[in-house]
Amino acid sequence: MPSRGCCRDAPPLQRSIGCSEMPLYRYQAWDERGRLLKGIVEADSQQDLFGQLRAQGLLLKKASGVKRRAWRESRIPLEVLAEFSHQMAFIMRSGVSMVNGMGDLKRQLGGEAFSQVLDGLIREVTAGSTLSQAMARQPMAFPSYYVAVIHAGETAGSLEESFRDMALYLEWLVQLRRQVKQALTYPVIVMLLISIAIAIFVTVVVPRLVSFIKELNRPMPVPTQVLVWINELVAENWYILLGLAGISILGSMVAWRFPSVRFFWDRHKLHLPVLGQLMLEMVLLRFVKYLRVLYRAGIQIHHSFNILQEVVPNRYYRSVMSHIRDRIMEGESLADAMESSGAFPPQIQRNIRVGEQTGTLEEALEQLGIHLGRMIEVRIKRLVSLIEPMLLMLVGGILILVIVSVLWPIYTILGELG
């Protein structure tokens, strides 16, 4: 769809493939066969939406606005998008018609949500839109960097290569998420079980123990007295503690709405002990991977940094992307702009500089991606190896607490009675 007023100041690449700042609408519409179709699309207004759908042979039934935050939660899974990219690369290589190929994919990939996405692509390509223009109107399925790479492939006549690059990149991203999830699953489960055990211990075991000891009119050891004091404090003031916890959570949610607070957190969490370096390397790895894909697709560097501003997950590094783009627009080299930001390790700056000077920037980015990927893999394994003994120490500490505060007084009382 041609760009509207909100896109007037967007970069040429984004203007050519559509702007993602227009309102989103969730719609239901009938097609020529009487089938009821659903989808999410960008439009200036409901009247504009009606015109878009009518041009595609659809009759609008109803439509409602969608907040972009809510829309982000319904993105198409990356696994589906990666498989779609692989299949589209094969279709481009085999010479099959794009429309026919996507029709076959609709039956193969399955899933109602993505089938509707493919329906939209087929209708718009058949109506004369380019594939990247059709994708730009499906923001819930195709991120801005994906659309930009496909647009560049259309322009250069290398769609097969663009789809193959995106498939490999998305598969890497899925694998990275799986590694992080696997690393966190074990400690989360253990901490959950420990929390349940502590809750049962404090609310069930301790009160019965106290009642038992008081009935015998025996003095309690100091560890047991401390445990009883904590238990009574929680029992008598639970509503105060619950209120403080609620206020803390509510205050955090309100504060998180302020961009300055989120920016502060995104910047300083990278300096946390143990986890900070891992989070920094993951941000840098995504930056390197994104930039390589965009550069390989033939997108100009300053346009690439416009896209990177949207897709880099850390808000502090988004501001860094803006700084680098401005310095490049002023005539600086990429390496100099990165160095002036002060946000990149010397090794990354050095590899980028050598790549620029020798005309091998793509290879330099690829090598950096491999190096950072290995470092992250090693760091995750090291983190897991540290978590396991720490959890064992925690479990051991809880067992010692149980023995000292519960079993010890019982054993002492039984010994006196004996």
User: From the 3D coordinates, which CATH architecture of the largest domain would you assign?
Assistant: Up-down Bundle
Number of domains: 3
Mean pLDDT: 81
CATH third-level topology of the largest domain: Receptor-associated Protein
Q: Reading side by side through the largest sheet, how are the strands ordered?
A: 2-1-3
The succession of helices and strands, N to C, reads HEEHEHHHHHHHHHHHHHHHH
- SS elements, strand count: 3
**In terms of structural class, how would the helical and strand content be classed?**
mainly alpha
Query: Strand content of the residues, in percent?
Result: 5-15%
**C-alpha termini separation:** 90 Å
Major sheet: 3 strands, antiparallel
- Cα-based radius of gyration, to the nearest Å: 29 Å
CATH homologous superfamily classification of the largest domain: Type II secretion system (T2SS), domain F
Tell me the overall shape: extended
Low confidence ranges = 1-20, 69-74
What's the helix count?
18
- Which CATH first-tier class of the largest domain would you pick? Mainly Alpha
Helix content: over 70%
Task: Please characterize this protein's 3D structure.
The protein has three domains: about 5-70, no CATH class; about 80-170, Up-down Bundle (Receptor-associated Protein); about 200-418, Receptor-associated Protein (Up-down Bundle). The chain is built from 18 helices and three strands. It has helices at about 10-15, 45-55, 70, 80-95, 100-110, 110-125, 130-135, 145-155, 160-215, 220-235, 240-255, 260-270, 275-295, 300-310, 315-330, 335-340, 345-360, 360-415, and strands spanning about 25-30, 35-40, 60-65.
